[in-house]
Structures are given as C-alpha cells and as structure tokens.
Design goal:
The chain is an alpha/beta fold. The chain has helices at 48-52, 73-80, 94-104, 124-132, 154-171, 190-193, 202-212, 236-249, and strands at 35-41, 61-66, 85-88, 109-112, 137-141, 148-149, 183-186, 217-221, 223-224. Helix 5 (154-171) packs parallel to helix 8 (236-249).
Length: 264
C-alpha cells in the first residue's frame, strides 16, 4: 500500500506523481491504467441511452449490473454499447449490485456510476486524473467549489450534513460530501475496502473503510443532475438510518491517516 500522510503533514501536490523506485531514466513509461465502469441498473431502459452515449473513450470496460429488470434495460444497453458486459445482480440492494460489479471488473481502476442520468459520465477523466497522480480513492462532492446539485432536497441535504459531520469527527477528516455515490478507486485496494453493505449505505461504508485503511482520499467537484426518467429507489429517512447504523458499527478504534482534499 502506498504511504499515507498523517494529519498535519505536508500534502503532495495533485500534479506530482509518486516516485516509482523501479523506474529508471530511459525506461519506457508505464502503460496507461485500464478503467472499468460499473453501472448498477434496475428498470433504467429509458435512461441508459443518455448515459452510455456520454461514456468517454478512457473507459475500457463497461459492466452493467442488472437488478432483475422487468423492462428492456439489458437489451437497450447492448444496443447502445454492444461490448457491454451484463452481469446479473446476486442479491437485493444497491450495495449488492455494486459488489457484484466490482467482483466482475478487470480494470486497474474502477469507477461507479448511477444509471439514472444523475451523474455525468463526462466527469470520469477528472476522477482518473487524481488516481493517476497517486491517490487511491476519489469521490465526487456536490458541496465543494465547482460542484452542485440540481436534485437534492432539503431533508437529504440536512441528513448529509449531519452524517458528514459525524464522519469528519470520527476520522479526523475534512470531507465536504458523504452521501453521493460517484466514486473511483484502485481495484488493487478492493480487499482493503472490505465491503459488505447491501443497500445505499455502501457508499458510506466505502468512504469510512478507505479512511480507516489509510488510503489516500481526494474529492473532486461534481454536479448532480436530476434523474432523467422514473422514480428513485432512495428513501431519505430509512436509508439515512442505515447510513447512521453503518457509521456507529464502523467506529474507528485508532487514528487513521488522511490526505486533505484537493491539495494545493
């Protein structure tokens, strides 16, 4: 695992690449990291075309995790992107869908993206940039400079604020967003993330486990868009309780290393 940074230590510039001891002058540059995009979907046939047509060329593999859709989600996905890999979800819940997709992914980097059109695929290169610069886990933020949301309700924003404050306190971190599932990470650290959640709380589990494991975490600004069609499966109150239970059950027993967000 790459060395982390203790709280208060000088932060590496985001444009500085980590040192590779095995690389010598005159050596060929390392090959570009491959990218797997994991898209959990259940009855998203109307939204898939908009999402898939915007996937950038830097993505090498698209994995559609189908949650037993009763519409033409899989057929539409294959029509839009013939090379898409469709895998059936092994159990209920978004957490299960993502874990299914992560296990199937083969790329060096994994990006997770919702299928409802609320996350713009065009933002993916920003996440990859930070991974290329040595970070291990990159998450989107709607509440840092350059980010925003065209969809969040007051109750969701309040809940996010309360839960975020708890995470920052427990992990001595300075994150600006918590309940937002646009993330990317190195597949080699999947074991450190140690994911078990079955529902929407998996997003919080990922972040807290990344912090607990001392992974280098960065935030990038992201604009959350309204769902393009259909209704969300998110239930603010009940899912908020699940997130809170996750935080309480994952309380850290020791101080973790954390690299401040968006370093100068």
């Amino acid at each position: 695992m790459p060395d982390g940074y203790a709280q208060g230590s000088p932060a590496r510039r985001a444009t500085d690449h980590p040192t590779h001891p095995q690389r010598r002058a005159g050596d060929r540059p390392a090959p570009r990291a491959t990218v797997s995009l994991v898209v959990p979907a259940r009855n998203e046939a109307r939204n898939i075309p908009w999402v898939f047509e915007q996937i950038p060329d830097c993505v090498d593999e698209v994995i559609l995790v189908d949650g037993a859709s009763s519409d033409a989600t899989v057929q539409v996905a294959r029509q839009c992107l013939p090379e898409v890999r469709s895998v059936p979800q092994s159990g209920p819940g978004k957490g299960n869908a993502l874990r299914t997709g992560f296990d199937a992914a083969e790329g060096d980097y994994i990006v997770m993206l919702d299928a409802d059109g609320s996350m713009a695929p065009a933002e993916i290169p920003h996440y990859l940039h930070f991974l290329d610069c040595g970070y291990d886990f990159v998450k989107g933020s709607r509440f840092m400079a350059g980010g925003g949301s065209l969809d969040i309700t007051r109750i969701r924003q309040f809940g996010n604020h309360v839960l975020l404050a708890a995470v920052n306190h427990l992990y001595d971190a300075s994150l600006t967003d918590l309940c937002y599932g646009y993330c990317a990470f190195r597949r080699s650290f999947l074991q450190e993330l140690d994911l078990h959640a079955s529902g929407f709380e998996i997003e919080t589990e990922m972040i807290t486990h990344a912090l607990r494991s001392g992974l280098r975490v960065a935030e990038v600004p992201s604009l959350e868009l309204p769902r393009r069609s259909g209704r969300s499966n998110l239930h603010a109150v009940s899912d908020g309780r699940r997130v809170l239970r996750t935080l309480l059950s994952e309380r850290p027993g020791a101080r973790v290393r954390y690299l401040p967000r968006n370093p100068a």
